[in-house]
Amino acid sequence: MYTLKFDEQKCLRCPTHACLTKCRYMDMDKDSAGEEILRIARGEDSFVLHDCVTCYACEEYCPMNNHPFYLIVQRQEELNVPPLPRPLIRRGINMGVPFRGDPVIEELNGKALLMGAFSDHMFLIQGRLFEGLPVISSDPRKMFHYFCQLMYLHYSRISVINERLPKIINTISMHNVTEIICFHDECYGAYTSYCPAMGIDVPFKPIHLFEFLYNRLLELKDQIRDVNLRVAYQRPCSARLSPDKHHFVEDIFRLIGAEPVPRKYSGEDALCCGGAIEGQRREGSRKRALDIQRRNISDMADAGAEVCVFNCPACYHTMEHSVAQKGIKPVYMSDLCRLAIGERPARWR
Ligand code: SF4
Ligand code: SF4
After folding, report:
1. Is residue 84 part of a domain?
2. Which of 59, 60, 69, 282, when mutated, tests ligand 2's pocket best, judged by the most ligand atoms within 8 Å of its CB?
3. Which of 118, 213, 232, 267 has the smallest count of CB within 10 Å of its CB?
4. C-alpha of residue 8 to centroid of ligand 1, in Å
5. 239: domain range?
6. 337 within 8 A of 217, measured Cβ to Cβ
7. Ligand 1 pocket, 41 CB below 6 A?
8. How many domains does the chain have?
9. Does the global pTM surpass 0.70?
């Protein structure tokens, strides 16, 4: 039984209530934000539980690391206020069942890349950046054995995460790994933010993909040529769980000669891709998701972006066509880095 480390006293002393005053999807002043978060902390219903679009951002906004988003999700589950329609929740939860036949456990004794539930994205793990790096979860038939389960934050199902995640960690540990480079932000957030918040042990060191890419590029520095592209970064919701790694986005751009365009919706003010919003129960969710996408992509285009850089495959698949329609090329960060060292990724045209 795991318990969320949320301290109501921190909220009572909090000078800002930034978790909710900064929320991009609800409009609250400091006093009402303070009242609502305390209501939720005390187990009561709040309009926040009904209107939250599960963008994860309040995890970043809270200056006291008090985990307001995990608290909101926990309360949504306890009070039966799911953000998604119930059939969708049932289907989604059944989809991620991890134990359908055992995976082959290869002992790796060191560092490895973890694909999590994105084994079908091995086409991105190519070239000199990844040379010699063992990969865990490269088989799509076994990927749910490595699925961090954090997606169920969008489903108000903390109980499912807490039941399955320790088993996933155990499976990864059986590979005898010391350092795990997480292909997906969400896995990194699971092991560095969610697990400590819940008191779940993580017996390996998680490394963010962008930190790995940056350090690998430094090793290949002699081979880097400026890409000379004006770029906009699509920050995924799960990046809110590791704001201390966000600087690697700009660090990489600087190293490879990519110019980030000045945007309204970047950094803390980033807008989500809308993928998690369009299927929500609230009336008008699809329209809302499309409006967020339209504002986000117009912002990139108005700022003069030639390329939209992605980390999260879910954001990529939600937005790739819409950004392309605006004349902006969608590209994964790892592929952009490959371009800089003279390689031509399969999807680059
Ligand atoms: S969750 Fe964080 S930001 Fe929100 S009121 Fe509590 S301490 Fe302040
Ligand atoms: S997860 Fe996003 S929408 Fe929900 S309360 Fe936090 S900031 Fe607002």
Report:
1. no
2. 69
3. 267
4. 8
5. 220-340
6. yes
7. no
8. 3
9. yes
